What does this fold into?
Amino acid sequence: MTDITRSTSRPLELTELLTLMLEVSERISSTLDLDELMARIAEIVKRAIDYEVFAILLLNEKTQELSIRFSLGHPSELVRSLRIKVGEGIVGRAAQTRRAVLVNDVRADPAYIASLPSIRSELAVPLMFKGRLIGVIDLEAPQADFFNDSHLNLLELLAGRMAMAIENARLYRRSLRQARTLQILNEISRELSSVLVLNELLRKIGTLTKRVVDYHRFGVLLADDQARTFNAVLSVKQDERMPEKYTVNFDQGIVGAAASLRRPVVVADVSKDPRYICVNPETRSEIAVPLIYRDRVIGVIDLESPQPGSFQEDHVRILSTLAPQIAIAIENARLYERVARSEARLERDLGRAQEIQMHLMPGIAPALPGLVVAVAFHPARELGGDLYEFLAYGKDRHVIAVGDVSGKGAPAALYGAMASGILRSLAPQKLLPPDMLKRLNVMLLERKIEGHFITLTYAIWEPRAKSLRLANAGMPLPILVRSGQCRPIRAEGVPLGLLENTEYQEAAVTLESGDLLAMFSDGIIEAANPKQEEFGTRRLENVLRQNAARPPQEIVDRTFEELRKYEAGHPVRDDQTLVLLKVR
It folds into this structure.
């Protein structure tokens, strides 16, 4: 590589100049890494101008301030903190005039900003790209009259190429940063949608936001519309959750301003903003972004930093992109918690209702003269619509009733409880089965509930005559098992609560010792296996016939064992009730 003399007085020969320009073009165009590019620029300039201190300052167009982006010879603290307004000092003058400024003795220049006490001469050249100022190259030396017009001309000649290279590298870096940001935002979006517990979600939001916006403090404040306040539900400092809670009125502070304006509010220096409410004494800059869900401000995310001007336009764009997703995630988590609380309350209520329903029906089979009775009731849900009753008609007659309400669950259970209550209220009238069904039908129609009706078998047992008189309103026909044979007891009628002026027929049968009578709901014969094939009346008859010699409770247990085998894990479709009567 050609060696170019670092003379402070001899101008470069044409050959040397051409060589330098070619090398500049080659070296600065071969990298898009901004840090490496600036180091190469410093190295190239050093070979032509033997400076003591070198800096590239870039312009913040919004604040019109220049800050050091690359430096050789400046103290690190100065590099971090120095901000030069356009028009201030020698660098600011070069930026303002868009022309190079050469000062042979800075002590004689009243505008000079003393960065290093040993400096005597300075050369500042603006970096222009497409007529726009992007920054300034600044050279300093400890000797007076160190820089000359030749240096100025050379640096001006190089500045255009350097400005273009810097802008290309910045654009490339910005593109990479945007691509990484979009990738992170996509990951954040997926992670936010996977968390449904509010406290866990809020902590997750604080952690994920740190990946795209560096902050010192992070807070989430949720709106209380009734109290008209924003209440801090999460406060994080340097990744550690803070215990303090605070409240801000809707119209107070930077948080209140962001909510009222319905847009992000950025404050570069909170000490100069009268809206600022001092909660954290170390805070110097702040950004507040409203969380809007369905056109309603549900909260605000608030980021703070101890450094002035920490939050820039990029941060506003990122947080503005995240805010709607955060708002949706928070509302989903709130909805999930409300649903979870409602489900827990419903579970408790259903448990109590199930307990009450069991108490409303006879807990154990009663001792009826001349009969051995066994009962089983298996609701398809927590509550069932089947019912059974044992009522007394004085000392010599007894009622056995088995019913099935249309539908399942709580509505059917309530309708069944109403029907049972009416039955019990009518029992003192000692009505015959057809008359009881007719009367019950009238009373249910008086209390008609759309979409609900009840099927019911109502039987009266007279032990002295071993006579059973019954009427049926839409229930499956009772099955009588005698001497190894099964036959249905024919008595049919319209379900109760559907039609007016309905008449019911009575069937009478005289039972013999050893007879077995089954009264059941259609949930038993309509039980299905995984192939959707029903258990059916014939299978039920086979089970009853094969086990007729057993005690009734064993027969009931065996029947439900066969049902469960047949269903093979298939969900129970309907309530299942079985009442067995065996003549002593």
In short: The first strand starts at residue 53 and ends at 60.
